Amino acid sequence: MPPRPSEHEDVVPASEKTEPPLTETVAPQPVASLPAQRQSWPDASIPETQQPSATPPTPPPPPARKSSSKHATNLYVVSYLVLFSILGTLARLGLQALTFYAGAPVVTGVLWANVAGSLVMGFLMEDKNLFREEWGTTQRNETAEWKDAHEAHEHAKRHAAVKKTIPLYIGLTTGFCGSLTSFSSFMRDVFLALANALPDPSLPVGASIAPRNGGYSFMALVAVILITVALSLSALIAGAHSALALTWMTPTMPFALTRRVVDPAVVVLAWGCWLGAVFLAIWPPDRHDPGREVWRGRAVMALVFAPLGCLLRFSASLRLNSRIPAFPLGTFVVNIFGTIIEGMCYDLQRVPGLGAGGASHWIGCQVLQGVMDGFCGTTTTVSTWVAELNALSRRRHAYVYGVTSVGVALGFLVVIMGSLLWTRGWTDPVCG
C-alpha cells in the first residue's frame, strides 16, 4: 500500500488536471476548504468511490436508500421545485415592490432580489449542519480532530456532493434561490439603461425621462452590469461566510422527520398551491370590486407560470451543464432563452392591439406580465450564474462565461426590443 502523502506535499489528483462538469445542483462551495487556490469539482456522473484520489479507494458504504424509493425521491424533488418556485417568485415581486420607490438610489428593482437570492445560495452551499444526517447516516462531528487536512477536505467534499442530491436542498437552492433571482429581468434593465428608458419612480406620473447622449447611456449600461454582478458575487461570498460563522448555532434537519413527514406533505402542498394559483387566475379575488382587476397582473399570473420555468431550468442544467466542463451550457441556454422571451413579451405589451391601446386588451397584458415575472423570472437565474462564476477553477473561463452570457443576452435584446423602440416606439401598456 503506498504511503499517504503528508500535508506539505503537493498532490494533484487526476480529476483536477481537467475541469469536471458543473451542474446546477453540483457546484463547489464559494469558500474552499483549502484557500490557497480555487478547487475544481468532481464529476457528478462518476460515483464518489471511483473518483481519482491520492489515497487508496475505500469500500463503498452500504446504500442508505432502497432502489424502490427512486421514484418517490424524484416526485419529492419536483414537488419542492414547484413549491419553492412559487415562494421565490412571490419574494422577488415583494422585494421589487419594496425597493422601487421615489428617491431610491438604485432604480433597478430586481437588484435586491438578486442580491438576496445569492446571499441565501452562498449560505446553503457552504453550510455543513442543516443536512448533516444526509440520507439517514449520522456524520462525524465537524469539530472532531481529523488526522490531517487532506482527510478533512475529502470529508467536506463528500458531504457537499451528497447533500446536493437531497430533495429539500435542491428545492431551496434551485427552486427558491433560482426563482428569487432573475437574469432576464437584470438584462432587461441593462437594455433599458442603454435606451434611456429605465423607469424612474421619482418622476411624476406622465412625465418623460430627460434625453441624454449615447455616452451617458453607455455609462448607465456599464453601471447596471457592474452593480448587479459585483453585489451578487459579494452576497454569495457573504452568505458562505455567514454559514461558517453560524456553524455553532445552525441546527440539523432530522432525516426521519424530513423523509416521513415533510417530503410527503410538500407533495400535497406544492401541487395544491399551483392548482390554487390557476383557480385564482380564472376567478381573481377582486373580480367583483369596482375598477380594474389587478391581482392577475401583479402576482397570480406569475405564480401560474413560475413552476414551468423552474422545472425547465432544472432539467436543462442536468442535461447540458456537463457537456462543456469550463462553460455551464445548461444555465447559459436557459438564461439566454428566458431573456429572449422576456424581450418579446415586453415588446408585445407595448404594441397597440395586444397589450396596449385599449381596455379590451387588459387580460392579454396581464398574461404577458405573468410570463415575464413568472416563466422568464424562474427560467433564468442569477444566483446559480454567480455561483458558477465563482466555482470555475480557472478565472479565464469564468470571465469568458460571464462576458459571453451578458453579451449574447444584450445582443438579443438590442435586436428584439431595440428594433421596435427605435422604429415605431413603445406605447404604455394598459396594465402597467
Tell me what the structure shows.
This protein has 432 residues and is an all-alpha fold. It is 57% helix and 0% strand. The chain has helices at residues 70-99, 111-126, 149-163, 167-180, 183-194, 214-245, 255-282, 295-320, 329-349, 362-379, 383-391, 395-421. It is globular, with a radius of gyration of 23 Å.
Would you summarize the structure shown here?
It is built from twelve helices and no strands. The protein has helices spanning 70-99, 111-126, 149-163, 167-180, 183-194, 214-245, 255-282, 295-320, 329-349, 362-379, 383-391, 395-421.
Secondary structure elements and pairings:
Elements: H1 70-99, H2 111-126, H3 149-163, H4 167-180, H5 183-194, H6 214-245, H7 255-282, H8 295-320, H9 329-349, H10 362-379, H11 383-391, H12 395-421
Task: Note poorly predicted spans.
Answer: 1-20, 33-56, 62-68, 140-144
Number of domains: 1
The average pLDDT score comes to 82
> Can you tell me the overall shape?
globular
Number of helices: 12
Largest beta-sheet characterization: none
What's the order of the H and E elements?
A: HHHHHHHHHHHH
- The portion of residues assigned to helices is 55-70%
Structural class: mainly alpha
Oligomer: single chain
Strand proportion:
under 5%
**What is the radius of gyration?**
23 Å
Distance between the termini: 71 Å
Number of strands: 0
Notable characteristics:
globular; 432 residues; mainly alpha
